[in-house]
Amino acid sequence: MNPESRTGERKASAAAFPKQYRLTRTDEFSSVFGFRRALKSRHFLLHYRIRAAGEGDGARLGVVVAKRLLKRAFDRNLVKRLGREHFRLLRQRLPARDLVLRLAVKPKPLDRRALAEEIRGLLGKMISPER
RNA sequence: GAAGUCGGUUAGGCAACCGCCGCGUGCUUCGGCACGGGGAGGAAAGUCCGGGCUCCGCAGAGCAGGAUGCCGGUUAACGACCGGGCACCGCAAGGUGACGGAAAGUGCAACAGAGAAUAGACCGCCGAUGGCUCCCUCGGGCGACCGAGGGAGAUCAGGCAAGGGUGAAACGGCGAGGUAAGAGCUCACCGCGGACGUGGUAACACGGACGGCACGGCAAACCCCAUCCGGAGCAAGGCCAAAUAGGGAAGCAUCAGGCGUGGCUCGCGCCGCUUCCGGGUAGGCUGCUUGAGCGUACUGGCAACAGUGCGCCUAGAGGAAUGGUUGCCCGCGACAGAACCCGGCUUAUCGACCGGCUUCCCAC
After folding, report:
1. Do residues A91 and A59 make contact, with C-beta atoms less than 8 angstroms apart?
2. pTM across the whole model
3. Crossing angle between the packed helical segments A73-90 and A112-127, to the nearest 10 degrees
4. How long is the CA A27 to C1' B57 vector, in angstroms?
5. What is the tens place of the pLDDT at every residue in A21-69?
6. Distances from the Cα of A130 to the Cαs of A52, A94, A125, in angstroms?
7. Is the CB atom of residue A85 positioned under 7 angstroms from any atom of strand B?
């Protein structure tokens, strides 16, 4: 049977992004950084940590955008939104890992389409080695 | 119609799908789910002022420090705003202004220039007065020469500060008299100071007896005077409260062991167990949005604003929501994201629309 219809209530659609899939605590962020694994792209670092069996399933995301790299709050919010949006769309296909998307290089012209493409690429790499 | 000026409004729209965060109602296997409705700004920004709120401090006063600075008003308050005065800019509408005090004191003024605040004399003007030189006349002497008077000199002593020149600024301006040349030296007018009068709440304006040219500028130099200001901030503050370590109290156990009680024995204390208490970290809840609120009508006021009636509830996150994709339309969309809340200021900003006023042109 369909696993979603088993409970009868859990009807969250495939692209939903409820709070349980976000990193919210300082020590959760620290443990991801402490795992010392990351994928690189032109502007981003995608840190990740493979979760143990008892920690639940599904990927979780945190986004870090330093004020040092983007001075204006508007731009920081934009980058965070891009990160969350693409994570939301790909979440179901991602393995059980804690991810932290971190902006590492100051994007000179802030091209949202290019940045979105980059994030999609990084998350895609996260999916493929599992296959 | 064109150019300008001042003020206000707005900040792409619609639809579909996929998401996020509160709220209300219902359901729930307490994990959530369904439905309804709401979800950034004019600057949310800079954090430059002011206030509320919270905690700490506080008899009162003063010092230090800071801020403000024409007058009157508005306000919870202000360094804001409104109205007025003055100065400057603009043909005008209008704009700009840290705009108190320089006879309380101490200071400062580059360069240029003769001289820069106890003024000064480079060029220049004069040389009346006293010399000098020359000439003329008269008198005296044999004569060199002497005396008296008159005249001349791009001259000395000296007088002057009008003119030139320097400068951001040169110790009133301009005209006349006056003089050797000049000078408030004298006079008229202007400017300055000003008893007093008139208008105005006042700043101030107008008139002005009289004075006499004395008293230059800079206070965004120190300073003086007047007024105001206690400190820290929502990571304020309040409540609940794990794990671990430690503290206190009561009870139990003291069989054995260890440590301490200066060496030994006894004894006592601690290390043990149970319960309770308070502090407190992670974490959670709260503060957290109904407010000096918004809209509207009327009243008072030139206005800022105030009062009254009626209506409305309009984000509340917390690794931090308010978004993404697609389609259509238009003039292709700027600056930019709430973090306790208000009142301002400043800075950023593609445009669109509305209104008042000014000047010019055309038509009547």
Report:
1. yes
2. 0.73
3. 40
4. 40
5. 888 777 778 778 878 888 888 888 888 888 765 556 678 888 888 888 8
6. 16, 9, 9
7. yes
In terms of DSSP H, where are the helices of A13-64?
26-35
For residue A115, give both structure tokens: 């940045």
* Secondary-structure class of domain A19-130 per CATH: alpha beta
What count of other Cβ atoms lies within 10 Å of the Cβ of residue A15? 11
User: Which residues 6+ apart lie within 8 Å of A46 measured at CB?
Assistant: A38, A39, A40, A99, A100, A101, A102, A122, A123, A125, A126
The reply to whether the CB atom of residue A120 sits less than 7 A from any atom in nucleic acid chain B is no
3-class SS at A40? Answer: strand
Is the ipTM, as predicted for this complex, more than 0.85? no
Question: For A79-90, what is each residue's pLDDT tens digit?
Answer: 888 888 888 888
Full strand arrangement of the beta sheet holding A38-40: A38-40, A44-50, A97-103, A60-64
